[in-house]
Design a protein that fits this description.
The chain is α/β, with parallel strands linked by helices. 33% of the residues lie in helices and 10% in strands. The protein contains twelve helices and eight strands. It binds ligand V1S, calcium ion and zinc ion.
Length: 393
């Protein structure tokens, strides 16, 4: 209908399982798995599935989850019941086993299924990249970058990204992990802090006292020691409120361009958390769907096998817009699809404005002040280039 055809010489695959979308973290919790339904609805109404291989993925097995997570943790995750969830707020903020059952990582019905399904989509994507059946594999149900080996954190229970990167490392000598979620990708950074085969780069809002998770300062470049091959293989880009498309895109291209030249990755894992968009319920940036998408377009232009993961994103209509737009970039249809959301899109009324690219004014009641000075951004670039001098392959 919109001239959506399979891209020549490039296979794009879409990995999802609709059962994931039925799960609920709780009434007031910002994470809404239903945003995946809204994304799929938009992707489908534009006719994009015709241009991709679409996989309905199986949940990851216990053994697969155990390639990163500890058995102690997985056993508790598999058996903890919502009844174990502390009832009052006071209790909820206290220490709970493996950080489970608090308000950030609640215990809910079907939690283990939800986690294994999310991990299953990302693992399936990684496998299709490894066996060369796909060049760009999309797993919007994954991207849960805060989960640790034996701990849940920030809405993340299973680190599907770590599992997928471990799978890529079976074939590819070096993997570049990039994270454009508004939060620091601490779980992925930590998992690979002692290897020089993975370089992690996270762009995020940084305010250690007031913004979650509080890590990812400019000087955090991986544990520094003579004997640690992973030293200098973590790059952090700490930003302030209100960064714009122009600033972000220029910073992104500069830094990822330099990292690509120096590290020469053989594959890319890109976490596309949509909470960096303007008007996000938790985020603080002024990015538009176009600016967020420009990062995906730039990564695609590097011509490497790539996985696109989801992640954060707490204003579902904007999450759906960004991930649908980025799916269109992956298949090379971004210039073909109309800006006006098709009339026949299910739940079209949820989009409020009928465009795929709302203006800042349409995205939020009052446009957020930009606190990123050009000087600060130049200093960040200088620091990153200095770090990269320590990296050799
Ligand atoms: N910012 C924020 C925020 N909001 C909540 C929250 C709000 C309502 C609820 F019913 C439950 C939780 N939690 C937080 C953050 C965690 C953000 C996680 C982002 C995840 C990701 O996008 O990067 C990837 C999917 N948590 C905190 O700030 C911790 C607290 C320190 C304050 C909030 N209370 C509820 C818990 C402790
Ligand atoms: Ca990030
Ligand atoms: Zn986030």
């Amino acid at each position: 209908e919109y001239g959506i055809v399979r891209p020549k010489g490039l296979t794009v695959s879409y990995h999802a399982t609709s059962d994931m979308e039925k799960h609920h973290f709780g009434q007031t919790h910002p994470m809404k798995p239903w945003r995946l339904t809204l994304t799929k609805s938009l992707v489908t109404s534009y006719g994009m599935p015709f241009a991709m291989d679409n996989y309905h993925t199986r949940p990851a097995t216990y053994q697969e989850l155990n390639s990163f997570h500890s058995k102690d943790y997985l056993d508790y995750l598999a058996t903890a019941a919502p009844e174990d969830q502390p009832r009052d707020a006071d209790q909820a903020e206290r220490e709970t086993p493996f950080n489970l059952g608090g308000s950030d990582c609640p215990l809910f019905h079907g939690l283990y299924d939800y986690c294994s399904m999310s991990a299953g989509t990302s693992l399936d994507a990684a496998r299709k990249i490894c066996n060369k059946q796909s060049d760009i594999a999309i797993a919007w149900g994954g991207g849960l970058h805060h989960a640790k080996k034996s701990e849940a954190s920030g809405f993340c229970y299973i680190n599907d990204i770590v599992l997928a990167v471990l799978e890529l490392l079976r074939l590819y000598p070096r993997v570049l992990y990039i994270d454009i979620d508004v939060h620091h990708g601490d779980g992925v950074e930590e998992a690979f802090h002692s290897t020089d085969r993975v370089m992690t780069v996270s762009f995020h809002k940084y305010a250690p006292e007031t913004f979650f998770p509080g890590t990812g300062g400019l000087d955090d470049n991986g544990p520094k020691s003579e004997r640690n091959p992973g030293a200098h293989h973590a790059i952090n880009v700490p930003l302030h409120d209100g960064i714009t498309d122009e600033q972000y895109e220029s910073l992104f291209k500069n830094i990822i361009g330099a990292v690509n030249e120096r590290f020469r990755p053989s594959a890319i894992a890109l976490q596309c958390g949509a909470d960096s968009l303007a008007g996000d319920r938790l985020g603080r940036f002024n990015l538009r769907v176009q600016g967020h998408g420009a990062c995906v377009r730039y990564c695609k232009s590097l011509g490497l096998p790539m996985i696109l993961f989801g992640g954060g994103g707490y204003t579902p209509r904007n999450v759906a817009r960004a991930w649908a737009h980025e799916t269109s970039i992956a298949i090379g249809a971004d210039k073909n699809i109309p800006e006006i959301i098709p009339e026949h899109t299910p739940w079209r009324e949820h989009f409020i404005h009928d465009t795929l690219f709302p203006s800042l004014e349409q995205s939020m009641q009052e446009v957020r002040h930009n606190r990123n000075t050009e000087k600060r951004l130049r200093d960040i670039v200088t620091h990153v280039h200095e770090q990269l001098r320590f990296v050799s392959i």
